[in-house]
Every structure is written in structure tokens, then in C-alpha cells.
Design brief:
This protein is α+β, with helices and mostly antiparallel strands and 571 residues long. It is built from twelve helices and 20 strands. The protein has three domains: 148 residues, no CATH class; 133 residues, no CATH class; 216 residues. It is globular and about 85 Å long. The N terminus is likely disordered.
């Protein structure tokens, strides 16, 4: 999408501004815009299209248990799809720029959806994430923090009959609040999502029990490491969620100390950007690990902090998001509608870092970026190296050996040695002697004869050292595997789909697999090309016993035997 200029419009774009409490405005003392800027109007139009699209998932059978609710794309009635419709519809119905502005028909659909949602709510106030979590406090919290925004928007529409629709809305939210006061969580980020949901409820219906529960969770302290990363290291998913909800709590309960972890996380994320605007995700501990994603989930936090701190680099991240994934910002429309102070123009941009070597030891990550290419080195990861050259992507490098079924290489740490980064792993492969006679059970049950009690002999060893350093316009990787001789080794260069190879040969029997023995190979996507070489091919066994299965991606293989030493330049 063409980059958009974020400016305030004239009177033609006037729209009713939600009537908010003073908390939303404590950070910005200057007058907020009285008209929606062009970019926000565009998001409202995107939201209109979503409202129409979601109608195809509505449960229209009046005899259905969840009549008025919404289904997933797999045909399962669920509160999340229903909640998504309610949030989209409340945003639309409240805005003059929307084709649904003050629509009585849409109000009726919201009412039906709310009644369907109430039927999906358990007596304890919780809802289910039907994919996995049942009677789930955290999934209830994810809903509530957004639905309170929608409640406020709907409350201020001044449509006749709105008060009737707000009755089931309030009932659902307050029932959910009872669950949030006492319910538990699964993962670290759930604590802060619950806090945000309780904060939003307290803004609308003040209750000391809400505040006390927030303070109880906050008593565990924010789980931010010295790198600026949260426990789950979920750079595409939950880190952005945490930034957003901590701002909600900081703003709603006047806890300005909570801005500091948000600030530190956003500063770290400057170094987790690929040249095409994608995010480094390979170190995540959650389901976004290795996913392809951009920075849209950080937009609210970046915009908020850019305006509060007058920070030009946070503003630059916002502009990057607008360029790479503007249409996805419709997902946070109600955040933007709720707080008109966010409509102000961003401060002038300061350039983001594009030429650096940066280590994040607590995350097990080293980032190297040189303008239009970048590389990520990872510990505790079998895909221990990536290389991006805009749209041409080497998404992982792996190496394995046929050594007692356990030689898929990954390193516990990354060591810096001058201008070189070292990954290492040492393995042993023992054999075991007869069990001590005085400890043999009469029934010969092997479960009663643990290996720890047997003497080891004929022990074999395998030691792998990977050295990574910069070369001209790229990096050089040297793999040195020694110890037991004659062990088959296979090295994988795993590329993202969509490109064309040169200098490699298709494997005779394996699809999406290529053998590499030439001096140089290349992988091109459009105008972007990654060069690699030289090759090495001493056998064609590309799926060694004990190695991870091949990924569903175009993969180049180099092979050999121990002692194995090979240097490869990627540029």
C-alpha cells in the first residue's frame, strides 16, 4: 500500500468523539484533534468491509442454541468470532464516516450477537477458547479489554434503543469481571492481559476488587529481561500484546512506571527488523516461532509512546508499519477511536538503525544488519542461522550427523571471539557392560536395571564447532565436526518458498530438495538474490537417522563424512 500522510482533516471529517474519562487524556495536555485524520477514516472504511464479511458467519437459525452468535471459518460457534463482530460493528455504528453510522439494523444485529454471546458464557463468567482452553479466565480477559471499548462507543451513539442493547452487554462484562477477580492463568502474558481487562472494567464500573486483583498480579513484577524482552520472547505475537496492555494499565490506573518496560521493549525491537519490514521470530517460545510477520501489532504502543516521548524512532516504526501493513491496523480501530489524543500528528522521524552488530544474550540472539541484508544467529535452536536479503530469504541453516540418533546440532550458547561468533556441541555415544550380578532382579525386568548402574565402554565422541563471521557483503560459516571418523554429515540451507535456484541439482528422488557440489549457487526472488558457496557433495543421504525431518521448503543439501570441515559464504 502506498504510504499515507497522517494529517488532520477539516470539518468535512467531523465525527462524534467518544465521551471518555479524564484518564485517557492525562498524557497529552495539548488540544487533541477535533476531526478524524485521513488515515483513521480509511481504517473505518476497511472496518465496514469486515462487518459485511463477518455476516457470512452469523448463526441465523432461530432454533439454534447460539442464535445470533457467530461461527469460526470451520463452522464452530464460538465467543471469539461473536466478539469480533461486536467490536467491528460497534466501531462502525459510532462513526459518521461509516456506512453503518447509527444504523438501527446494525444495532439489532449487535443485540442478537450479545444475546448469543451471553449463551456462550459459563455461570462462572468465563468463556471457552474452543480450540484448547475451557472456562478460560485469560481468554475471557482478551475479550473483555476490547469489549469495554466497544461498550463505550455504543453507549455514545445516541441511537434510540441503544439502552436496551447495553443491558446484555453490561451483564456479560460484569459477569466476566467476577471471573477475572478470582480466575487463574496459563502463561506469563496472561497476567497483564487480565490486569488490562480489569482496568477497563474499573474505568466504566469502579470496583476496588478490580484494582486489588490488578495490584496482586503486578506484585509479581514485569518479566522483562536486560535485553528488553519478555519471558515468552514472542516478537510477532505476545510481546506486542504486553506492550499494549501495560499502556492500558498505566493509563487507566495512573501507574506511569509501567511505561518503562514498554519503552525498553520497543527500543529492542528496532534491532529485530529485517530490511523488508518483517520481524525476527525464530527465538520465540510461543506459536509465532518462525512465522512470517510484520510490525503491525506494535502500532498502538509505538504511536502512543512516540507521542508521549516525542520519540522520532518510535514514529519511524509507525511509518514503517503504515508502509508494510497499513490495512491490518483495522484490528486496533477501537483503540484509536477510544483515544482521540492518538489522532495527533507523529513527531518527526529519526532513522532506524540499519547498520549494526547487536547481541541479545538473554534471548540467545545475535543480529547483524548491513542495510539491505541481515543475519540472525540463534542458540538453543536447530535452525541456528538465517539470512535475509529483502525478499530472498534463507530461513534456516541446519546440520546433522548420523551419530547414535541424536546429532541434530544446536548450541546451548553463542560465544563471541573477536569478530567471530561460535556455536558448539559435544556428544558422546557409549556402549554398556553387563549389569552388576548382585543387582540383577530375579525376573530379569529391564525396568529394574537402569543404565546408570552399568559401566560404559567403547565410548564414541562427536564435537561440532560452528564459526560465523562477516565477509564481504555477507557472512562466512565454517562447520568443523570431529571425533569419531566416518560419520555421515548433512548440512541444509532452507529457503523460503517462491524463488528460483541456479547452480544446484534436483535430488533424484526427493521433492523440493537440491544437491550442491558446484563453486557457487544462487536463489532469486524477483530482483533479490542470495549467493552461496562453495558446495560439497560426498553422499546423497539427506535424511539421516535422528535428524529432524525435512521442512516443507526448497532446501539445498551439502554432505560429507567426519572429519568434516567446510566453509560457506552467503551473500
Amino acid at each position: 500500500m502506498e504510504r499515507r500522510k497522517f494529517v488532520s482533516l477539516g470539518a468535512s471529517a467531523l465525527c462524534a468523539i467518544p465521551l471518555l474519562g479524564s484518564a485517557a487524556f492525562t498524557l497529552y495536555k495539548s488540544q487533541v484533534p477535533v476531526a478524524k485524520p485521513e488515515w483513521l477514516v480509511t481504517l473505518i472504511k476497511f472496518n465496514d468491509a469486515d462487518v459485511k464479511q463477518l455476516s457470512t458467519y452469523k448463526i441465523t437459525d432461530p432454533t439454534h442454541r447460539y442464535f445470533g452468535g457467530y461461527m469460526s471459518d470451520m463452522g464452530i460457534p464460538n465467543p471469539h468470532s461473536t466478539c469480533a463482530f461486536i467490536n467491528r460493528a460497534c466501531g462502525a455504528i459510532s462513526c459518521q464516516e461509516s456506512i453503518f453510522y447509527q444504523s438501527k439494523d446494525l444495532l439489532k444485529e449487535i443485540d442478537l450477537a450479545l444475546n448469543g454471546l451471553l449463551k456462550m458464557q459459563h455461570e462462572d463468567g468465563t468463556i471457552d477458547l474452543v480450540d484448547t482452553n475451557f472456562h478460560s479466565t485469560p481468554d475471557t480477559a482478551f475479550m473483555v479489554k476490547r469489549l469495554v471499548q466497544s461498550y463505550k462507543l455504543l453507549e455514545n451513539t445516541e441511537i434510540k434503543g441503544t439502552s436496551d442493547t447495553l443491558v446484555p452487554f453490561k451483564l456479560f462484562l460484569q459477569n466476566a469481571g467476577e471471573a477475572l477477580i478470582t480466575g487463574g492463568i496459563h502463561t506469563p502474558n496472561h497476567r497483564w492481559v487480565v490486569c488490562a481487562a480489569l482496568t477497563k472494567l474499573n474505568e466504566k464500573w469502579p470496583d476496588t476488587r478490580y484494582i486489588n486483583r490488578v495490584n496482586e498480579w503486578l506484585g509479581e513484577h514485569i518479566d522483562l529481561d536486560p535485553d528488553g524482552q519478555y519471558t515468552e520472547k514472542s516478537t510477532y505475537g505476545y510481546s506486542a500484546v504486553i506492550d499494549r496492555v501495560l499502556i492500558t494499565v498505566a493509563k487507566g490506573l495512573q501507574k506511569p512506571e509501567l511505561y518503562e518496560p514498554v519503552r525498553k521493549n520497543l527500543l529492542m525491537m528496532r534491532y529485530y527488523l529485517h530490511p523488508n519490514g518483517e520481524v525476527v521470530t525464530e527465538a520465540s517460545n510461543r506459536q509465532d516461532k518462525g512465522q512470517i510477520g510484520t510490525m503491525e501489532n506494535y502500532y498502538y504502543a509505538c504511536r502512543y509512546m512516540a507521542l508521549m516521548d516525542k520519540d522520532g524512532q518510535f514514529a519511524a516504526i509507525c511509518r514503517l508499519i503504515e508502509t508494510t501493513s497499513f490495512h491490518k491496523l483495522v484490528d486496533i480501530l477501537n483503540y484509536l477511536l477510544e483515544d482521540p489524543s492518538l489522532w495527533k500528528e507523529l513527531p518527526p522521524e529519526n532513522p532506524l538503525p540499519v547498520n549494526y552488530v547487536k547481541s541479545f544474550p538473554y534471548s540467545g540472539v545475535v543480529r547483524i544488519r548491513r542495510n539491505q541484508w541481515d543475519s540472525t544467529i540463534l542458540s538453543n535452536n536447530p535452525g541456528w542461522l538465517t539470512f535475509h536479503k529483502k525478499d530472498a530469504v534463507l530461513q534456516a541453516m541446519r546440520v546433522a550427523a548420523s551419530f547414535f540418533g541424536k546429532a541434530q546440532f544446536q548450541s546451548d550458547s553463542i560465544q563471541e571471539n573477536g569478530n567471530t561468533w561460535l556455536l558448539s556441541k559435544k556428544l558422546d555415544g557409549p556402549y554398556f557392560q553387563p549389569y552388576p550380578k548382585d543387582k540383577i532382579p530375579p525376573d530379569g525386568d529391564m525396568a529394574k536395571m537402569p543404565k546408570a548402574n552399568r559401566k560404559q565402554s567403547n565410548i564414541q565422541y562427536l564435537e561440532t564447532l560452528v564459526s560465523i563471521s562477516e565477509s564481504q557483503n555477507g557472512i562466512e560459516v565454517t562447520i568443523d565436526i570431529g571425533g569419531t571418523e566416518g560419520v555421515p554429515v548433512t548440512m541444509e540451507l532452507i529457503f523460503r518458498k517462491g524463488g528460483i535456484f541456479s547452480g544446484v541439482d534436483p535430488h533424484p528422488t526427493k521433492e523440493n530438495a537440491f544437491l550442491f557440489k558446484e563453486k557457487e549457487g544462487a536463489y532469486s526472488v524477483g530482483n533479490d538474490t542470495i549467493h552461496f558457496g562453495p558446495g560439497k557433495l560426498e553422499h546423497r543421504n539427506i535424511q539421516l537417522r535422528g535428524a529432524l525431518p525435512a521442512m516443507d521448503a526448497p532446501t539445498v543439501y551439502l554432505t560429507g563424512f567426519t572429519p568434516f570441515k567446510h566453509s560457506l559464504i552467503i551473500s
